[in-house]
Write a structure and sequence with these properties.
single chain, 226 residues, alpha/beta, 7-stranded mixed β-sheet, 20% helix, 31% strand, globular
């Protein structure tokens, strides 16, 4: 695994302009998620991340025709570059990552390489979700405000330009947010996929009915998209 970078190093790399990618990056919008026939759910060391990735993949199985998926460990050596963790799947196979760059090495790579159009930053005290194209934080809050009943999440799609891999991430700023991200994608985004014409969507989740799980009784507030 890569060494832990300082906050200053992470801030510098995350602020890089988005990498130039082939013209096919115009297709990197959520309503085209059914375009690839195959998907690979990347597993890390966290159960919540893996369950979130599986929920996203199962939702894509409702596409017509269905997207078929497999799972792969991120350290297997054939899905991510062993040194840089750059995605290697290539065109036609969507990489699905549940959870952010803390556990998912591919997400950490996409964020630090300037590929992801939106990204999460957290320094132990505060958190942000940034729109890379503008450099504006669409979410800014204290980590202390994240609870089992309140979190933020990001749904983001990007094309890794070297391999051409389409990469979809459903990640919370905390673990409850990752659960909420997968839930919202499967229950709200997929049934209305043609209306999601952006490459990323950031939401605030509030557990309105106070039962510690995302469900129809909760509040999902759009904080930003593009």
């Amino acid at each position: 695994r890569p060494r832990i970078r300082t906050i200053a190093e992470r801030a510098e790399t995350l602020a890089r302009p988005r990498s130039s990618v082939p013209a096919t990056c115009d297709d990197a919008v959520l309503d085209n998620l059914c375009a690839n026939a195959s998907a690979t759910v990347i597993q890390d060391q966290f159960v919540i991340d893996n369950e979130a990735g599986a929920e996203v993949a199962q939702a894509l199985a409702t596409c017509v025709p269905a997207v078929t998926y497999v799972t792969a460990d991120q350290d297997a050596g054939d899905v991510l570059d062993p040194s840089s963790h750059r995605p290697l799947l290539g065109p036609g196979d969507t990489l699905i990552a549940g959870g952010g760059g803390f556990g998912q090495s591919s997400v950490a790579y996409l964020d630090s390489a300037g590929v992801s159009p939106a990204y999460i930053v957290e320094n132990g005290t505060d958190l942000w979700i940034y729109d890379r194209s503008t450099g504006v934080a669409v979410v800014e809050d204290a980590v202390a405000n994240l609870t089992a009943h309140h979190d933020y999440f990001l749904l983001v799609l990007a094309v890794e330009p070297i391999s051409g891999t389409l990469c979809f991430t459903a990640a919370g700023t905390g673990a409850p947010g990752t659960v909420a991200a997968a839930y919202y994608f499967s229950t709200e985004v997929m049934p209305n996929l043609p209306t999601y014409t952006g490459s990323w969507y950031a939401y605030e989740w509030t557990d309105t009915n106070d039962n510690s799980v995302p469900d129809p009784g909760d509040t999902f507030t759009l904080e930003g998209s593009d």
